[in-house]
Design a protein that fits this description.
This protein has 816 residues and is mainly α. The protein is built from 36 helices and five strands. It has a five-stranded mixed sheet. Helix 9 (222-230) packs across helix 10 (247-257) and helix 11 (263-286) packs parallel to helix 14 (315-334). It is globular and about 80 Å long.
């Protein structure tokens, strides 16, 4: 069908050009008029719906915050701003120089030369990967400390300083050539560049803030901090995610070793810059400079991207290596015509390294290995007539090199835990410290996003409808399900009085509250209707669709769409460039949509009790005050951590209960991640009385217990399941997951079932002695309360409490 349609379009084009009366019209112009009309129509349909839902229901753009607080941006020009952050900036630049030198050494060692690749965005990610692996082996050798890292830096700087000088001169030549290039620089292009610069500026300033984000404080920066405290790698049984591939997290070790808590955020921001450069170059290769700039603009101005790029996460590292792999794969495919095996082999090696580094960021990237190998094989079939064995050999090189590159993380897990994919593949490999309940809870929590749990239980036809409507839903209904909706969450399209005056609107489906820009949905039909694709564009589309399919059936959090967005951004840039060519009306509509998305980021950055980095970065508000009094991140017990910092010794062992973000804890601690079982709960299973549980605290050497009432209350339903004995909790959780389809399709039946479920849950709690033991320890005044911070003074169970262990520690101190 596709071939017939393509032949029809080609013949129509020939007829138009051959017709004497129509010689002054071209096929391209006719199609452009149709596309232009469709673009205007989609803007008039999609953008008002996007604004209505996101502005009225969610208040996406905080115009009030922008109006009231915009003067605070001028605080950045205080001298303190430079003084306070000069070390962080110089340190990151120093890391970039060393990464650049190491990356060039690696490329020269492989013998890879390709001037069409962006040298900075190519070399630094490879160089930083070398740094990460070196730190990984230092950690395994238990010699990880500030002095060792400084010596490694000095060694690498000595090895690459000549390359830095040589490449610095080359960069100056490139800069002069860019300034004197013959290509016309229009005012329109400078406007797009300015908008990119605004988004990058927002991300940069936000990256200078102290980290306050959930996943970062749970394990992305907490685990590297613990490795530094122990002088090397240490097994953390209560943080299962510490056994994930940790390529980016080992880079976070470097600034943390020198007391730079903003350093990890700046590293993630740098990967954001590298991704933008790669996307620009891919777009330029498809079209021209304008295409590349528009591709980078679409990615940079996506509402959640600038702020997310400034967090201490790893997603932009993963995205960078995936896009880097695609860049090399495309170059490899296009150079297959020359048939030089040695040149192709070097490209395949580099592609394998890039793919292996992506796998070293995240388990899910394992699937891209087979995509790249398949793309190489299919490209060879279409390009040149070589034997099948040579094609397989080239793909085998990619897979083998990628496997070798990513192998250290899997070998470590296999030796230490017996499971290379820990904590997954539980039915195939042993998973110590990861129970059946933990695995079921993780699967359930991942399936909450986008109602994936319910989708898995739907018939095949409804699954297809769900997949086809995903682009619309993630654009319009991106918000998270509220915890109050765990019981009584309503399905898509259900009319209910719970939504008040907007009763006809469907609730958000839990895509993570990461808003996409409306432009992604508006331009999607225009891209799919374009029949004039070359091989490069088809590879972009196939890889983007592959990553979208992987996202749709693994973890439907919108932030995990970043690799797919970055891959298809050049196609969007090409379509946008054609639409905006000599059409002022289209340009105005395009800029309105882009500016609205950028305004969402702007408004969030000016909200005084959420971000507003201008006051903190400029020193008007101290970091401690920001962490403890200003922010609305209710899961961070920084008030309690200040008490521990000022009134206890660092060696005093602290038990954290209900706290899964321990990065700022100044003491040695025992705690658990969100998906792991809390140690106090696990100990309660082995204790029949409060006295036995107190004895266990004494055996473990616990000096203080920090109990976050507010966190436990907010996630009380999960907490109730966690604290049940494992067999009871697992059975109830599985039953709860099995009702997801009923929740979506038959809400009233679900409401009746949930009443019965709550009664059964309460009955199981009454029959579980460990719950009474837990309650007796935490509420029975067994431990001495030494600190309390009430978020809500009228509610004694909405705050953080520090309790001191019984008097045996004081008796031991007297004896000593």
């Amino acid at each position: 069908m596709y071939n017939l349609l393509q032949i029809f379009c080609q013949r129509t084009r020939a007829m138009v050009h051959s017709s004497p009366q129509n010689k002054r019209y071209s096929y391209g112009c006719a199609i452009s008029r149709h596309k232009s009309f469709l673009f205007v129509l989609l803007c008039l349909l999609v953008f008002p719906a996007y604004v209505y839902h996101n502005q009225i229901r969610v208040n996406l753009v905080r115009w009030d915050a922008i109006y009231a607080n915009w003067p605070s941006i001028f605080y950045l020009f205080r001298p303190y701003t430079v003084y306070a952050h000069v070390f962080d900036l110089v340190f990151i630049l120093f890391m970039a120089f060393i990464g650049y030198g190491l990356g060039v050494l690696l490329l020269r060692w492989i013998g890879y030369e390709n001037v069409s690749l962006p040298s900075v965005a190519l070399a630094i990610p490879f160089g930083w990967a070398i740094l990460s692996y070196v730190l990984f082996f230092l950690a395994l050798s238990q010699i990880l400390n500030r002095m060792t890292i400084a010596l490694i830096f000095a060694l690498f700087l000595w090895a690459s300083y000549r390359i830095l000088i040589e490449k610095w001169k080359e960069l100056i030549r490139h800069w002069r050539a860019w300034r004197n290039r013959e290509e016309k620089r229009t005012h329109e292009l400078w406007i797009y560049i300015l908008l990119i610069a605004v988004a990058v500026f927002f991300a940069f300033v936000s990256s200078l803030m102290p980290p306050t984000q959930s996943d970062g404080l749970r394990y992305h920066v907490t685990v590297p901090k613990l490795y530094l405290q122990h002088g090397g790698f240490v097994f953390l049984p209560n943080i299962a995610f510490s056994n994930f591939p940790f390529l980016i997290e080992y880079l976070f070790l470097i600034p943390l070793a020198f007391d730079s808590i903003s350093g990890p955020k700046l590293i993630h921001f740098c990967y954001f810059l590298f991704t933008l450069i790669l996307v620009y170059r891919l777009g330029k290769a498809i079209g021209n400079t304008k295409t590349g700039v528009l591709a980078a603009l679409l990615l940079a101005t996506t509402p959640f991207v600038p702020i997310f790029a400034s967090w201490s996460f790893i997603e932009f590292g993963l995205t960078c290596y995936m896009v880097l792999g695609l860049t090399i794969c495309v170059e490899l495919v296009e150079r297959l015509r020359d048939g030089k095996w040695e040149s192709l082999r070097k490209s395949a090696i580099l592609l394998g390294i890039a793919a292996g580094l992506a796998v070293s960021c995240k388990y899910t990237a394992l699937t891209i290995l087979f995509f790249f190998a398949g793309a190489v094989c299919l490209a060879w079939i279409r390009r040149v007539d070589h034997s099948i064995w040579r094609r397989v050999k080239l793909a085998g090189i990619v897979l083998a090199v990628a496997g070798i590159t990513a192998s250290p993380w899997f070998v470590k897990n296999a030796i230490l835990l017996g499971n290379p994919l820990y904590p997954f593949a539980r039915n195939t490999f042993p998973t110590p410290h990861w129970s059946e309940f933990n695995a079921t809870f993780f699967s359930y929590h991942a399936g909450i996003k986008g109602n994936l749990n319910a989708v898995r239980q739907l018939p095949i036809v409804e699954k297809v409808v769900d997949f086809l409507t995903l682009p619309i839903r993630i654009t319009l209904f991106h918000g998270d399900r509220r915890e109050t909706d765990l019981f009584g969450a309503w399905p898509l399209g259900e009319i209910t009085f719970l939504h008040g005056q907007f009763a006809w609107l469907p609730p958000d489906e839990g895509f993570g509250s990461w808003p996409l820009g409306a432009i992604w949905l508006i331009l999607l039909p225009l891209i799919l209707l374009d029949l004039r694709w070359n091989r490069r564009m088809r590879l972009h589309l196939l890889f983007g669709a592959f990553l979208f399919l992987l996202w749709a059936y693994t973890y439907r959090d919108t932030r995990f769409l970043l690799p797919s967005l970055a891959v298809i951004a050049p196609l969007y840039g090409k379509t946008a460039a054609a639409l905006l060519e000599k059409r002022p009306g289209n340009r105005c509509l395009f800029l309105v949509v882009i500016l609205y998305g950028l305004s969402a980021t702007t408004g969030l950055l000016f909200m005084p009790r959420t971000y507003e980095p201008w006051l903190v970065v400029s020193g008007k508000v101290s970091k401690d005050d920001y962490l403890e009094r200003v922010t609305r991140f209710e899961h961070e017990p920084n008030q309690a951590f200040r008490f521990l910092r000022e009134n206890t010794k660092k060696d005093d062992l602290v038990l954290l209960h209900g706290i899964d973000q321990p990065f700022y804890c100044p003491n040695r601690f025992i705690g658990a991640d969100w998906f792991n079982t809390d140690p106090l709960i696990a100990w309660s299973w082995e204790s029949m009385t409060v006295e036995q549980l107190v004895s266990r605290l004494r055996e473990e050497g616990i000096r203080y217990v920090v109990h976050d009432y507010g966190k436990i209350r907010q996630y009380f339903f999960y907490y109730r399941l966690f604290r049940l004995p494992p067999a009871k909790g697992t059975a109830l959780l599985r039953e709860f997951v099995g009702m997801e389809r009923t929740r979506v399709r038959f809400p009233y039946l679900y409401l009746e079932w949930q009443n019965r479920f709550q009664q059964r849950l309460a009955m199981e709690e009454d029959n579980s002695p460990n719950i009474k033991v837990l309650h007796g320890l935490l509420e029975g005044r067994t431990l001495n309360e030494v600190f309390r911070y009430d978020k809500n003074p009228t509610d004694p169970h909405d705050g953080i409490v520090i309790m001191e262990a019984p008097s045996w520690f004081k008796d031991e101190e007297v004896l000593n």
